[in-house]
Design goal:
Number of strands: 0
Helix content: over 70%
Order of helices and strands: HH
Shape: rod-shaped
Distance between the termini: 57 Å
Low-confidence stretches: none
Mean pLDDT: 83
Radius of gyration: 32 Å
Largest sheet: none
């Protein structure tokens, strides 16, 4: 169970790293494009706008996928937790019934031994 949480935590860190890489790479690319553009400022601005829209759309897509994976992992953890809790409740009830039977049998034996003599 602990390893599942570690995998999810590792995956979440990877998603954050990818997002940071996309953002930094996009900004660096835009800056380089501004500095090295061989065309007019107006055309460069248009390209920057187009690229920023593409980057925004790509980032949104990656975030949607990451959020969906996080929700799936959360739901799986919750489902597993409920299942394990139910198992523990059933085991506890069974042990309690067993102990009550043992105590009841011991009380009957003691009663017979002390009152029957």
């Amino acid at each position: 169970m602990n390893s599942e949480y570690q995998v999810i935590e590792y995956h979440n860190r990877n998603v954050v790293n990818v997002m940071a890489g996309l953002l930094i790479g996009g900004l660096a690319g835009a800056g380089a494009m501004l500095l090295l553009a061989p065309q007019s400022g107006e055309r460069t601005r248009e390209q920057i706008q187009e690229k920023s829209i593409e980057l925004r759309d790509e980032t949104t897509s990656v975030m949607d996928i990451a959020l969906a994976k996080v929700w799936l992992a959360k739901n799986k953890i919750a489902r597993d937790g409920r299942r394990r809790t139910n198992e523990l409740v059933h085991r506890s009830k069974a042990l309690m019934d067993e102990q009550l039977e043992t105590v009841s049998a011991a009380a009957k034996t003691w009663k017979k031994a002390n009152l029957g003599s």
